[in-house]
Design a protein that fits this description.
Shape: globular
Largest sheet: 5 strands, mixed
CATH class: Alpha Beta
CATH architecture: 3-Layer(aba) Sandwich
CATH superfamily: Gcn5-related N-acetyltransferase (GNAT)
Low-confidence stretches: none
Number of domains: 1
Length: about 160
């Protein structure tokens, strides 16, 4: 079946939140590591990002069934954004998820490309994402470059 990639509607926010939750489980997090109110947190984030940051999600459908999703918006920043938009206006891609039985068919790439197109339409000049191990090759094929992001786990 030929997949359809389309803009998600507000009525699909709960499904997108579920995909985001499943993405973490598929990447090895146990449910105990995820807040019990993950859905409320995610839906609140989506609502705020839509209102303030130009958020838009896209879904992949096969035979009328949504089998994947991805979203993105302007990046709010981890530090004060003191650059002119002409120099840098980052967009952020997150929640790229395809159900296991539909993986390896190019849907993740197509979803990511639709988010990239959206980010360009809203004035972003660079796209940023955090790749899961399984998604890294998809993003590299789209031209994403490794960044200088570094992290250190602190003792609890």
């Amino acid at each position: 079946m030929t997949p359809t990639i389309r803009a998600a509607t507000v009525t699909e926010d709960t499904l997108i939140a579920q995909h985001f939750y499943q993405l973490w489980l598929d990447n090895g997090l146990s449910p105990e590591m995820i807040c019990p109110d993950w859905q409320v947190i995610t839906l609140s984030f989506i609502t705020q990002a839509r209102r303030e940051l130009g958020y838009q999600a896209f879904v992949a459908e096969v035979a009328g069934q949504v089998v994947g999703s991805a979203g993105g918006q302007r990046f709010a920043g981890c530090y004060p954004i003191a650059f002119t938009p002409a120099f840098r206006a980052d967009g952020y891609i997150w929640g790229v998820y395809v159900e296991p039985e539909y993986r390896q068919r190019g849907l993740g790439k197509q979803l990511t490309q639709r988010v990239l197109d959206h980010l360009q339409r809203i004035g972003c000049t660079r796209a940023v994402l955090n790749a899961s191990p399984s998604g890294k090759s998809v993003y590299e094929r789209l031209g994403f470059q490794p960044s200088n992001a570094m992290y250190l786990n602190l003792p609890v």
